[in-house]
Amino acid sequence: MENKMQLYNTLTRKTETFVPHTDGKVSMYTCGPTVYHFAHIGNLRSYIMEDVLEKSLRYLGYDVTRVMNITDVGHLSSDGDTGEDKMLKGAQREHKTVMEIAKYYTDAFFADCAKLNIKTPDQVVPATQCIPDFIAAVEKLLEKGYAYIAGENVYFDTSKLQDYYVFSSQSEKELLVGVRDDVEEDVNKRNKSDFVLWFTKSKFENQELKWESPWGVGYPGWHIECSCIAIGRLGEYLDLHCGGVDNIFPHHTNEIAQSEAYLGHPWCGHWFHVQHLNDKSGKMSKSKGDFLTVSLLQEKGYNPLVYRMFCLQSHYRKPLEFSYEVLDNVNAAYTKLLKRISELKEEGQPDPAVMEEYQGKFQDALCSDLNTSMAITVVYDLLRAETNDSTKLELIRSFDQVLSLGLTDGVPKETSSVDAQLEAYVLQKIQERAQAKKEKDYAKADAIRSELLEKGIALEDTREGVKWKLLG
Ligand SMILES: [Zn+2]
Q1: pLDDT tens, 22-38?
Q2: Of the N and C termini of the chain, which has fewer Cβ atoms inside 10 Å?
Q3: 33: CA distance to ligand 1 center in Å?
């Protein structure tokens, strides 16, 4: 088929025609979440843009197979080989086992994705289900001389490669120095950039999840998981690998190193990276400031699809600054757009010439390095076009297969201004119920819940406290 998608490739640092290994088919791999906490909306920006990319390729007629891992073991918080274990940290914080934490936050992640109309990849693979594959890959890397054992851990030897810093640029090298400065040196490493493939000697004595291996009881390094899952599920040649820009180094750099050492040939042709979401003070993270989640946006009255629209209106390679003022503007524009579309009537027959013209414009926008804001502009242009409503509706339905903004679902109920009186009333009742529970007056607590239910208000006890919503 005709290759017309122009897409920036981090590997070549150029926008180039996307050419898959097998004509018409695309194998696509996405680094999934480390499931130790809720995803913040900055993480979700990457998943939204990857979702649009996958749907764009399908829209262009490609047969896409997409795989995503779930990191439920072995991800250390420095993203190197030191730092704290994120999963263990989560489990300790919430007094749960690592597997309980993994299950809870995996479900929470997919619930957020569903609210944002992000399609679940064809295969979702938890790392803990692939331990034998990781062990086999590490054995092969040892056999081929790309790995060594030191201090009871297995390390990848980066000096064995012609070009380890495949993505390198001046700024990344500076970043590397910065990252390494505050990290304690691992004396077992032969080279500064070497990384762990398998841990048996970890500073985390209380590591919960451990497996037998030829090198003793231990657990895999983070990077090996993505290489093994991608190669195992999608074969030796990967067309497209996605992630956030903070995955470029060290994670994706290490994935390439070990995958190509393992396979003995180039592995993935195209690397797609989504830029950060920032707030006014810089990159958004879980550890600072307001921890922005989809649930929090909903509590503040925003439809999650307004956040999707906010992301789509900006280019994925530009840092995006989040603020409620901008989100409010997007909310107003989104509501207005949905209202205009809801006023279209199924009248007349779709006009094939107009259909072709606008489908062409829409595809051109997607093929211009995934220019989603231009794709949205095509929707506005179409609404102003001289053609009948049926043509418009048919086209908007087809565009929404990619945009997934619920464009033909009708106008959502006004969500941004929840009735203040109602809110005060419910909060008062929630307080009364909490007091009743404290006094072990469960009959009264139940009565308050029923009283609210009769008024169409449902309460939900969550780990962040009591939440409420209007039913129906
Ligand atoms: Zn990964």
Answers
A1: 999 999 999 999 898 89
A2: C
A3: 9
